Structure formats: C-alpha cells, structure tokens
Inverse folding.
C-alpha cells in the first residue's frame, strides 16, 4: 500500500469525511488493514539503498556500518513523522496520532523490516550467531505484536469498547460464609475511661 493509505485507514476507523474515498482501505480484515498501515514508499527507499550498498561493497573491506545505521535511523524518523502526520489529519491532535494503532503499526513494521532486511547494519555489526538470534527475535516479536495486538485494533473503530471477559466464579480474598471469625476479625474493645 502507500503512506497515503495510512491516512485513509485512520479516516475509516474514525468515520471521517474522506473514509469512503480512502485509497487502500476496505473490509478485508486484519491482513488488509496491516497492509494499509505499512509505509511502503519508505520501505522501498530504504531497501533500495541497502541493496545498492550490498552490491557496491560486495568485495570491499569497508562495510559502511555507520552509514547503514544512520540510514536506518533517518528512515525510521521519517516513518514516525510521515505516519504521524497522516494519522493527525484524522485524529486531530499529535498525542492521539502517536497513540493510534495506525502509527504504531507503521512504526513497528518499518522498524522490524529495517532491522531484519539482509544488508542492514545488524549484518555488519553482529557476528553470525548473534545475528541469527537477533533476527529471529525481532521477527517473532514484531509478528506477535502486529498480528495479535495491532492488527485486530486496526479493524475496530476508534472509541469502540472491547468486550471484556468476566469470570463470575473467580473471587479473590473473599471469606467463606461458614468460616469462623478469627481474633483479628473481632472488633477491638472500646477504651475504658
């Protein structure tokens, strides 16, 4: 999808005036909503530059780790700013923008992609064993966060109340009616004067 689809998704979730004409939005479920919230233009830019680094520096001793790191930081900052601006149009305030599921999805998705894409600064910074564990952890963590938390929230209109699970038989620290009171339960004798 597109960075502009983040704005459309934000409008759709808030019932804004541009919700019907929003590009890339629809009732396709969590996967469609997740696709709409990924800032693909920024992902493509980052991936292209990293691929160029890999192809040019294939036989070179210089891995350009600082450049790769600052490229990641710069494009992450760009993701934060652009996705925040897109959500701000629908949310109305900066605080509502950065606390929205659309903003968090865009930020988490880019962060995970930027870290795990072959050629990122992690590939030149970590040794092989550390890299494997780090890539697996980042991928699994981002997948869990996006799939279990953010994805379902993208399909829920803003302000909708989530159903709560209530267990009526669960009581904590409630005394059984048939139990005898202890000395701690007896009222203190009033002071005599």
């Amino acid at each position: 999808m597109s960075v502009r689809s983040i704005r459309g998704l934000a409008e759709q979730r808030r019932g804004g005036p541009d919700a019907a004409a929003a590009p890339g939005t629809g009732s396709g479920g969590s996967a469609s909503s997740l696709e709409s919230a990924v800032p693909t233009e920024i992902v493509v830019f980052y991936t292209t530059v990293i691929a160029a680094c890999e192809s040019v520096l294939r036989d070179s001793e210089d891995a350009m780790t600082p450049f790769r790191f600052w490229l990641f930081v710069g494009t992450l900052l760009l993701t934060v700013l652009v996705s925040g601006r897109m959500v701000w149009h629908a949310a109305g305030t900066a605080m509502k923008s950065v606390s929205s599921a659309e903003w968090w999805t865009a930020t988490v998705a880019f962060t995970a992609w930027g870290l795990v894409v072959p050629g990122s600064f992690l590939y030149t910074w970590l040794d092989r064993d550390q890299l494997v564990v780090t890539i697996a952890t980042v991928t699994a963590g981002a997948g869990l966060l996006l799939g279990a938390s953010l994805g379902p929230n993208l399909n829920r209109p803003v302000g909708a109340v989530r159903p709560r699970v209530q267990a009526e038989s669960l009581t904590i620290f409630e005394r059984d009616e048939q139990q005898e009171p202890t000395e701690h339960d007896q009222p203190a004798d009033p002071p005599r004067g």
Remarks:
- The mean pLDDT is 77.
